[in-house]
């Protein structure tokens, strides 16, 4: 993703704003389809078929993207964007490009939510060491995911920069081919769990049934009229009380089977379903506070363009690819998580009394503050970069290299790594603490939807800023010529929005009430740590 902005600008003659919009929307669609992939797997096809479908879709998309690089007619004629009057891509050329993006998104949407769970299905659950083996599997899964991210942002990006897009897209296509082939070769050996029902379907059923029963009045002093699936002690709460109609037993002979189970979830829901939906709705305000930090971290297209204009030589003979600077965020995240978990948590727990060292609320707040500081640092760095460009007379030479090291971009990436480590982990742990263990997959789903939402917000922000600042023939803040635009003003705008978001977060925390320090039923640190290691691959 960070390097793709250069392909869109150089290969398809897109402006920086248009290319960023394409990438924001592509990322949003990819993360949104992960929810669809999980639903398709749980309710209809099963994990094996969905992963196979995703592998084929990803491979087809990668091959199609590779075609755009190797077949000349797939792209506009090459030209110097800042010197010549370049022809834009034709609708047919964009259709091929966007089709490749769409196929890759479908593939990711099918594979991401299913691969880890499918791997866990293969483990022997009757083994007395199953929990330890499962923990080990998750550790290796996330370690390999983090490593793949590092490889893609270093080796693959280096190939794209030095050997061209033909090789840069060809290598991942070949890797995807062998990945799909290896997966299918093991088909006869896999344990394939049958699809049952989707948690997301249950969330739709509750308001549907409640609306059907809108003429009923929920009883206030007894829960004997409510349908329970498992936990008989769970009673409907008075929050969002109108949803309680969904689990009311109107006619036991019609609504329930002889053994007391639920014959039709579209006629009556369980108390557990209703309370889970209430919990989800109650989480939405706090969930929404995490969108802005993801928006600030999603500006990789612009940071790649900044790095592209700066001195990137590490040694006289080695030049760091512009998109590789983003890997520092992943590295910081990967290093900090075990340090915090193994070294700092025991020390902090003695003083705070919190089993996880710092409370979830405090960690989420720290993450929001650090992201705000990171954007401010980014704005200052860009202001200095632009001033140096002006002093060197490079206003009309956006492709020229400034006498300023690209290493000055590292502080903001490092701060973003710490921000994600605190905020994202705190968010997911908080989500896990609110749902029962059977509903814990909703925690990851909420985070995934947040990423999709942040990309849509990022696209909207780019469009609004570009439209407003370019009125009257003025140079847009987000001009493709960074030396004439004002990317620093754009970063300051995001910094202000981050400050407002911190205030909004404090209001949401006050409204929500005290957070739980630890999820009931999950006191074992090893199981909690599984989720912490999920974030590097995110």
UniProtKB/TrEMBL annotation:
Keywords of the record: Membrane, Transmembrane, Transmembrane helix
Domain of life: Eukaryota
Recorded topology in the membrane: Multi-pass membrane protein
Cellular localization per UniProt: Membrane
Pfam families to which the protein is assigned, alphabetical: PTR2
InterPro entries in the cross-refs: MFS_trans_sf, POT_fam
Transmembrane segments: 20-40, 52-74, 94-119, 140-159, 165-191, 280-302, 322-349, 361-380, 413-432, 444-469, 489-513
Main subcellular location of this protein, as a coarse class: membrane
Annotated CDD domains: MFS_NPF1_2
UniProt record similarity statement: Belongs to the major facilitator superfamily. Proton-dependent oligopeptide transporter (POT/PTR) (TC 2.A.17) family.
Record's protein name: Protein NRT1/ PTR family 1.2
């Amino acid at each position: 993703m960070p390097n793709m902005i250069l392909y869109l600008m150089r290969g398809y003659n897109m402006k920086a704003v248009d290319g960023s919009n394409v990438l924001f929307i592509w990322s949003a669609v990819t993360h949104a389809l992960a929810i669809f992939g999980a639903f398709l797997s749980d309710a209809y096809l099963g994990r094996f078929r969905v992963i196979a479908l995703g592998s084929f879709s990803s491979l087809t998309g990668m091959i199609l993207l590779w075609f755009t690089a190797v077949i000349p007619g797939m792209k506009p004629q090459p030209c110097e964007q800042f010197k010549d009057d370049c022809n834009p891509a034709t609708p047919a050329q964009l259709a091929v490009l966007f089709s490749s993006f769409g196929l890759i998104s479908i593939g990711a949407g099918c594979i991401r939510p299913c691969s880890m769970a499918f791997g866990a299905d293969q483990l022997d659950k009757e083994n007395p060491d199953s929990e330890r083996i499962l923990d080990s599997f998750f550790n290796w899964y996330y370690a390999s995911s983090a490593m793949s991210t590092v490889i893609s942002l270093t080796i693959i990006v280096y190939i794209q920069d030095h050997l061209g897009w033909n090789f840069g897209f060809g290598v991942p296509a070949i890797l995807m081919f062998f990945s799909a082939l290896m997966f299918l070769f093991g088909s006869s050996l896999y344990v394939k769990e049958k699809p049952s029902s989707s948690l997301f379907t249950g969330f739709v059923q509750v308001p549907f049934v409640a609306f059907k029963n809108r003429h009923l009045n929920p009883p206030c002093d007894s829960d004997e009229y409510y349908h329970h699936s498992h936990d008989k002690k769970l009673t409907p709460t008075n929050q969002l009380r109108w949803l309680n109609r969904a689990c009311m037993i109107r006619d036991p002979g019609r609504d329930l089977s002889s053994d007391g189970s639920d014959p039709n979830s579209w006629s009556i829901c369980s108390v557990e379903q209703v309370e889970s939906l209430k919990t989800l709705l109650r989480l939405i305000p706090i969930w929404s506070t995490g969108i802005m930090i993801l928006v600030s971290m999603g500006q990789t297209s612009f940071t790649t363009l900044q790095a592209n204009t700066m001195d990137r030589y590490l040694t006289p003979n080695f030049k760091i690819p512009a998109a590789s600077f983003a890997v520092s965020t992943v590295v910081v995240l990967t290093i900090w998580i075990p340090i915090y978990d193994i070294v700092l948590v025991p020390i902090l727990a003695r003083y705070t009394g919190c089993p996880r060292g710092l409370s979830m609320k405090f960690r989420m707040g720290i993450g929001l503050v650090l992201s705000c500081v990171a954007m401010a640092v980014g704005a200052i760095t860009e202001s200095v970069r632009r001033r140096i460009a002006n002093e060197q007379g490079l206003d009309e030479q956006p492709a020229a290299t400034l006498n300023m090291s690209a290493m000055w971009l590292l502080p903001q990436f490092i701060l973003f790594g710490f921000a994600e480590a605190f905020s994202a982990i705190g968010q997911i742990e908080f989500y896990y603490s609110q749902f029962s263990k059977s509903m814990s997959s909703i925690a990851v789903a909420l985070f995934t939807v947040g990423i999709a939402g942040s990309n849509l917000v990022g696209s909207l922000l780019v469009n609004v800023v570009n439209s407003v600042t370019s009125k009257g023939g003025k140079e847009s803040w987000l001009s493709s010529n960074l030396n004439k635009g004002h990317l620093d003003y754009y970063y300051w705008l995001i910094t202000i929005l981050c400050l407002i978001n911190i205030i909004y977060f404090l209001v949401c925390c006050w409204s929500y009430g005290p957070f739980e320090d630890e999820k009931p039923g999950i006191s074992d640190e090893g199981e909690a740590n599984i989720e912490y290691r999920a974030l590097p691959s995110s």
